[in-house]
Amino acid sequence: MLNKAYSQLGLAMRAGKLVTGDEIVLKAVRSHEAKLVILAGDASANTQKKFRDKCGTYNVPLMIGFERDKLGSSIGKPERIVLALTDQGFAKMIRKTVCNLSEVEYIE
């Protein structure tokens, strides 16, 4: 099931509906462009706190629990810690795919 989510992230990247990188994702959250933020489970405690707080403030759903190397390879980039989906359709599709997985901590 998680492999399906990684494939969907790759599809979103090819469609231009995904942004990556600390500052770019924070900008998307602040401007309400981000529909879902995905954070690697092995991100540092400070990074996790920063994105929990920011997403909570701006009411953006946050998923934590993916692996950074698989996040990167799924979108054709090196390791990635944080991604944001900017399309509601892709966000809904990925949320539906990983909703019942125990490997992913889901916060809304």
TrEMBL record:
This is Ribosomal protein L7Ae-like RNA K-turn-binding protein. It comes from the Bacteria. Pfam families: Ribosomal_L7Ae (PF01248). Residues 4-92 form the Ribosomal protein eL8/eL30/eS12/Gadd45 domain. InterPro entries: Ribosomal_eL30-like_sf, Ribosomal_eL8/eL30/eS12/Gad45.
